[in-house]
Amino acid sequence: AQHFLDRSKAHPELAAYLALDEAATLAQAQAADQRLAAGTAGALEGLPLAHKDIFVTKDFASTAASKMLQGYRSPFDATVVRKLADAGVVTLGKVSCDEFAMGSGNENTAVAPVGAAAAAPVRNPWDASRVPGGSSGGSAAAVAAGLAPAATGTDTGGSIRQPAAFCGITGIKPTYGRVSRYGMIAFASSLDQAGPMARSAEDCALLLSAMAGPDPERDSTSLNTPAEDFSLQLNESIDGLRIGVPAEFFGEGIDADVRTAIDAALKEYEKLGAKLVPVALPRTELSIPVYYIIAPAEASSNLSRFDGVKFGHRAKDYADLQEMYVNTRTEGFGDEVKRRIMVGAYVLSHGYYDAYYLKALKIRRIIANDFQNAFKDCDVIAGPVAPSVAWAIGEKANDPVANYLADIFTLPASLAGLPGMSLPVGLGAGGMPVGLQLIGNYLQESKLLNVAHRFQ
Ligand code: GLN
């Protein structure tokens, strides 16, 4: 823990951490030492880990990178935080993300990182002029730069997979409901899912085994599927494995350098005994408008709790209650968050609900059905995580649509609630890492980790 704390403090230029507290971390590490000495160690005893600042923690402030929650202290730990602590994990601190997990580049952040006076985008450790991806950009940058051996992330539409790809690490978004959402600051509740980000599929399997499991009293959407040991299948042979390759993931939008790296990875899999089979995901393109209706709709509802009354920021100047709400939200939310609230309120409003929201829900169901058709012919689906390698900081900062389009390959699995992961498979333009995405059927995390581990 001391090593990773020192290294984290030595690299403020990455802007990865929003909170570090050496005394709190070392107290947790000492408790781990005592359990090791007493012979009561957990499966991950003493392992240092950074939490995305979307998970609430008792020992550190929890901000979701928003002014709205600057300095906020939760009276309880998120279930993920508690379960990892029960397994012996020592919290290094809280890492940056896009505000309320809305973004793809970790540029939408409103809280100053450790060692800085003002909010700053997280830097990609491979090339500091580029984004680390988002929204779990702090998690990905911290692991890639060796500031933490592992981190938690959350993925609503790609936020574990895409930053893992951009920073050359491994991350898995489990099946929706595998991991409890309790204490995860909510973005879009029907999509939000937590998962581990680490240096290998093997590490992800160890972490996920501690994170997953039912939480019926606190998250009614958590699945009633007992936690399993996700490491058990890691070394199974993949001889004869059928890898589905959707043509829609290899069309016009994908950059040539990414395509080359993905094609090479698929060839490796053939050498390992896998068979490539063509599958169709014909509604891939529609996943962008569908997601960008459903996610903002849910966000507009979830974020209504930030009203200046219950917790977080409250405006100083106001004449009456209405103005208190308006000024609080005007000051507390960043531009992207406001954009989502407006879009969400619009698509849910009378007269537009049927035209947009209801239609999006129907197409979401069709997208999920398309996957079930594809899984009749294959065991896992493979393709790129993103159409390009990490872009330059600032390049897409003022262009929300360009950001949304870059999510095209991660959104389908999110809308269907399927598990998906990213593993590094090579380098593309500028020597930047390229991630291969593996998508499995429901509850097939062990299979995905097995397939990734065989490559690694
Ligand atoms: N980039 C997507 C968005 O901005 C996904 C974010 C996420 O998965 N949290 O909504």
From TrEMBL:
It catalyses: L-glutamyl-tRNA(Gln) + L-glutamine + ATP + H2O = L-glutaminyl-tRNA(Gln) + L-glutamate + ADP + phosphate + H(+). Keywords: ATP-binding, Ligase, Nucleotide-binding, Protein biosynthesis, Transferase. It is an enzyme of class 6 (ligase). The keyword Nucleotide-binding applies. Residues 1-449 form the Amidase domain. Its EC number is 6.3.5.7. One of its GO terms (biological process) is translation. GO terms for molecular function: ATP binding; glutaminyl-tRNA synthase (glutamine-hydrolyzing) activity; transferase activity. The active site is at residues 52, 135, 159. Gene3D superfamilies: Amidase signature (AS) domain. It holds the Pfam family Amidase. One of its GO terms (cellular component) is glutamyl-tRNA(Gln) amidotransferase complex. Belongs to the amidase family. GatA subfamily. Heterotrimer of A, B and C subunits. Allows the formation of correctly charged Gln-tRNA(Gln) through the transamidation of misacylated Glu-tRNA(Gln) in organisms which lack glutaminyl-tRNA synthetase. The reaction takes place in the presence of glutamine and ATP through an activated gamma-phospho-Glu-tRNA(Gln). This is Glutamyl-tRNA(Gln) amidotransferase subunit A. The gene is gatA.
